[in-house]
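User: I'm putting together notes for a lab meeting next week and I want to include a structural view of one of the chains we've been expressing. I don't have a solved structure, so I'd like a prediction I can at least talk through. The sequence is below, exactly as it appears in our construct file.
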Amino acid sequence: MPPALFSVEKSAPIVYNIPMVPEKMTTSHSFAVLAHGDSPYLEDCLRSLERQTVRSEVYISTSTPSPFLERAAAGHGLPLHVRAGAPGMAADWSAAYALCRTPYLTLAHQDDRYHPRYAEACLAAAERRPDCLIAFTGYDELAGARRVGWSVNLAIKRLIAALAFLGGRTIAAPWRKRALLAWGCAIPCPSVMFHKGLIGDFSFSPEYRVNLDWDAWARLAARPGAFRRVPGRLVTHRRHAASATAAAIDAGRRQQEDLLMFRRFWPGPLAAAIARLYALSLLGRR
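Assistant: Thanks for the context. Below is the predicted structure for the 286-residue chain, given as structure tokens.
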């Protein structure tokens, strides 16, 4: 492989010698693949993005560059953007979001797989509502080689979403968006498509290491605009012991951040009670 060519600016991403995203937008949607370390599941993720029924721009964004990621990017003909500075989930996600040059963006998680109709379905849903801030789909999980279509955690999240949307596909009233978020994080982060053309610049909060997605949805819910729920389980989320979520659950970080989020919606004692009940859904989930 030829030597990597890059330019370094203190706050700018390093871009290796793989062709960059064109200046002129050729599509309305991008997948920013969030890569950290050398994931054995990255190839599955990239292949699932190549199989989409509509064309999207795809690029890899990381703060942990490696020959592994260079080979993966080169093998798929993708730009590899390297953020300068210490690795951190909020900064990594914010950098990947900032790189997007299309109106719509999905932050694709490197361990997950996307159904071939994911981008097509999300774009169709969002384009029906010009005020759509985010669109999201359902998901199932993969634990090892076993597909998990039902668990207590999944059932609770699906129930929260069903009650908030009341059988519909759109919520725009502030109280309904708060109702969706007040009982737990029912929006599956890997499935979310952002309407960046409407949202504009956006950064994820470094205050959170686990619930930076829930915090993001809460801040977006305070803005005028709609959330769209796309029918179908169009993302497969992989659960494994090395994932950030599993590590956070083991360390108790997840429960601490859940309580912080519940306190944004409920008085202190009630928030603590809801957080304890919500934590039960995480038992056995690694």
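A couple of points you could mention at the meeting. The first strand starts at residue 13 and ends at 15. The mean pLDDT is 88.

User: Perfect, that's what I needed.
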